[in-house]
């Protein structure tokens, strides 16, 4: 990674008077799992209709160093299972990673399986700051009865959940806004962070965000040229995007992005109709408030 990229990223947030960036959507995983994720993107071109090169395909130490060089003050280790008997092990790995990496918000996950409430409760006791749910990869209904106690625990403790529930880049059996609407009818106090702005169902997830108590959206990959070729954010939603400003958090999908980190920041900065106050909120202030982070 070139020094000029880090300098360009730092220039964006420093010009806004921020102490750095809070990135709520980054991935750190056990090497065996990350290798499989990268292999998926390497082979997914025909399915996605394009190649998906991994820009930051480097070892874990260098990836952490890259984020720090960008001025990312807090980031996440979003892990997610695709089958039973996987989540508890991922949680153990992620908790240890956070202990060794104090600028990482301790992250955990879950899957609809017997015992899920037990390891979710343990994760909360051990200081998990957020959970990750991936409806598409996990191929499960968020309203599965096996998750009733899980959602109840998470709602009661107010722990945010980054949830990939939109139908991009490929729809799943349980993706889209309706399963989330049903979920929120049962657990209206959930703090959800809808990944990727809910693409491509942007308008529906803006509805959910603006009508809810605690639903947020993360910007992961949204507004970039890579995504706009197939799933552009609708210009007609510009006003509601501004209105939802305090509920929008910056996410990058680092390291699994097919472009540079500075490109993600440039794309957000170029969104029509937004101003510096909106950018300050998205890049730092909104997440700092949600996670009670104070760098002073």
Automatic annotation (TrEMBL):
User: Which residues are in coiled coils?
Assistant: none
Q: Which UniProt keywords apply?
A: Hydrolase, Lyase
- Top-level division of the source organism's lineage: Bacteria
- Domain Amidohydrolase-related, first and last residues per copy: 22-292
Among the entry's GO cellular component annotations, what is one? cytoplasm
Its GO biological process terms?
Answer: secondary metabolic process
GO MF terms on file? Answer: carboxy-lyase activity; hydrolase activity
- UniProt name for this protein: Amidohydrolase
The protein's organism comes out as Mycolicibacter longobardus
């Amino acid at each position: 990674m070139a020094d000029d990229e880090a300098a360009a990223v730092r220039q964006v947030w420093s010009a806004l008077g921020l102490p750095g960036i809070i990135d709520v959507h980054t991935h750190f995983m056990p090497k065996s799992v990350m290798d499989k994720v990268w292999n998926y993107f390497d082979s997914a071109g025909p399915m996605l209709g394009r190649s998906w090169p991994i820009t930051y395909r480097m070892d874990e130490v260098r990836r952490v160093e890259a984020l720090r060089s960008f001025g990312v003050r807090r980031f996440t280790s979003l892990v997610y299972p695709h089958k039973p008997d996987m989540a508890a092990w991922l949680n153990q790995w992620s908790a240890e990673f956070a202990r060794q990496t104090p600028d990482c918000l301790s992250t955990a996950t879950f899957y609809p399986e017997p015992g899920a409430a037990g390891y979710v409760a343990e994760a909360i006791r051990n200081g998990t700051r957020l959970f990750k749910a991936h409806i598409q990869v996990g191929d499960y209904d968020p309203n599965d009865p096996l998750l009733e106690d899980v959602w109840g625990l998470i709602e009661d403790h107010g722990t945010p959940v980054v949830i990939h529930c939109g139908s991009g880049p490929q729809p799943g059996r349980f993706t889209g806004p309706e399963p989330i609407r049903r979920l929120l009818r049962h657990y209206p106090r959930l703090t959800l962070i809808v990944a990727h702005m809910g693409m491509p169902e942007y308008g529906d997830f803006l509805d959910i965000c603006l009508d809810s108590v605690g639903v947020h959206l993360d910007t992961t990959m949204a507004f970039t040229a890579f995504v706009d070729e197939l799933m552009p954010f609708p210009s007609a939603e510009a006003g509601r995007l501004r209105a939802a400003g305090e509920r929008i958090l910056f996410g990058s999908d680092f390291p699994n992005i097919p472009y540079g980190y500075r490109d993600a920041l440039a794309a957000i900065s170029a969104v029509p109709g937004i101003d510096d106050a909106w950018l300050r909120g998205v890049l730092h202030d909104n997440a700092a408030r949600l996670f009670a982070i104070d760098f002073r």
